[in-house]
Amino acid sequence: MIWPGQPSGLYHAETDQEDFLVLTGECVLLVEGEERPLRAWDFVHCPPGTEHVFVGAGDGPCVIFMVGRRASDKGIVYPSSELARRHGAGVETQTSSPAEAYAPFPD
Predict the structure, then answer these.
(1) What is the block-wise mean pLDDT of the chain (107 residues), using blocks of 10 residues?
(2) Which residues have CB under 8 Å from 21's CB, separation 6+?
(3) Residues 46-52: contacts with CB within 8 Å, 24+ apart?
(4) CA nearest 55: which of 28, 82, 35, 77?
(5) pTM of this prediction?
(6) What are phi and psi of 99, to 5 degrees?
(7) Roughly how many angstroms between the first and final C-alpha of the chain, as a whole number?
(8) CA nearest to 15, candidates 75, 96, 77
(9) What is the DSSP letter of 87?
C-alpha cells in the first residue's frame, strides 16, 4: 500500500519482467522518464530493462498487485533521473547496488 506522495521504492530497471495491477486507489507511474496516471484496474507490463516506480496519488491509499520473475541471476540498476528525484524516488548517482541506493533511508 502506498499513500499519496509516497513512492513504492526507488526508480529502477531490472533484468526480469514485471507486471502490475492497480487494485484500488490512484498512483502515478514514472516509466522511462514519463509520468502516467493510473487508477483501479489499470494494468502495466514492464519488459526487462524498463525504468519504473510508482508514486501514490489521489485522496487515499493505493494498492498494487505486483508480480514478476525472480531469478538468482537478477540484475538491477537505479538510474539517475531528475523526474524520479522530484517525486522522492530517485538516486543522485546511478548505481547497481541496492544497499548503496537505499543508504540514505532509515531501515
Answers:
(1) 96 94 98 97 96 97 90 85 97 95 86
(2) 41, 42, 43, 44, 64, 65
(3) 46/17, 46/18, 46/19, 46/20, 47/17, 48/14, 48/15, 48/16, 48/17, 49/13, 49/14, 49/15, 50/13, 50/18, 51/11, 51/12, 51/13, 51/79, 51/81, 52/11, 52/12, 52/13, 52/18
(4) 28
(5) 0.92
(6) -60, -40
(7) 18
(8) 75
(9) T
